[in-house]
What we know:
alpha/beta, Peroxisomal Thiolase, Chain A, domain 1, five-stranded mixed β-sheet, globular, binds oxa(dethia)-CoA
Amino acid sequence: MGITILGxxxxxxxxxxxxxxxxxxxxxxxxxxxTRTGMRxxxxxxxxxxxxxxxxxxxxxxxAAGVTPDEIDLIxxxxxxxxxxxxxxxxxxxxxxxxxxxxxxxxxxxxxxxVYALDxxxxxxxxxxxxxxxxxxxxxxxxxxxYTDRGAAILFxxxxxxxxxxxxxxxxxxxxxxxxxxxxxxYCPLPRQALPFGGGIPAREExxxxxxxxxxxxxxxxxxxxxxxxxxxxxAGIAVEELDLIIPHQANLRIIETAAKALQIPxxxxxxxxxxxxxxxxxSIMLCLDEVIREGRxxxxxxxxxxxxxxxxxxxxxxxxYQNKP
Length: 326
Ligand code: UT7
């Protein structure tokens, strides 16, 4: 059993942070950022909450799908930058949409979130317990970025994208993984308050912002992206070269190019929008999906591979036959 992608949508904040703006507060340059990452601009949510961006992307996806909020059975939201510890972003989006029949939950798999959530959506659809899933990926990395750390600050941007999914006939296979051993290289702690117990336990000194060892993450990424894509193709019973399009997590253009080379896939078959939005964590693959559908870059029956990696460390890929009608 596969999935039908009835419609997709997006929300991108208006504020554009160019490489030149980073030069005003960091020891960096447009030339360094473009050469090392392929990024030129990112969007920054100056005052729109993460769940609200998700709701706005979801509204567009529902409109494209011709589905009303009360037809949604399940809302899955992926985010590493939720506005609240609780309630979940998914429940806040549900409230914003007025999707009264649905149940809603967040899926935490960092930048691989949308790949994990697609797999979960398909499994729920397969049981027949739900007919329509709304998948939303929404992120404000600007809230988790240390803007004094030039190695990481220039990478991240904000945005949201969504898809309305139903059961389909075509191919679907997924290969998901996690490797916690590398966690020290990429993490973002939550703040901890001082406690009045045990004589007063002081709050943690650590900044509640992203710590990243870029080189280690890079090495991990170029190893696992091709491995995950190959594993999903193998499960799907197709050769990598049969894929019509690959949608990789947009972390660094050099990572994408290296993975493409390892897979022997020409760059024309790879979706890249990193120059416009930077790394939007779990939203990046969904923003690409929305873009390729809107631009007509994929047609029904095309075989596409969505592949991601991120903190955890999580990684994985989904191979599916694109279908847009039930
Ligand atoms: O969603 C997953 C999250 N993260 C990632 O995927 C990140 C993966 N890693 C990367 O994309 C790359 O490692 C970076 C873009 C973060 C860094 O690129 P790099 O080619 O690995 O650079 P590097 O860390 O090896 O640093 C090279 C030099 C260093 O200077 P020295 O020691 O050679 O003098 C850095 O201090 O570049 C320097 N540098 C910068 N220079 C100008 C680091 N960041 C900057 C900067 N501007 N923004």
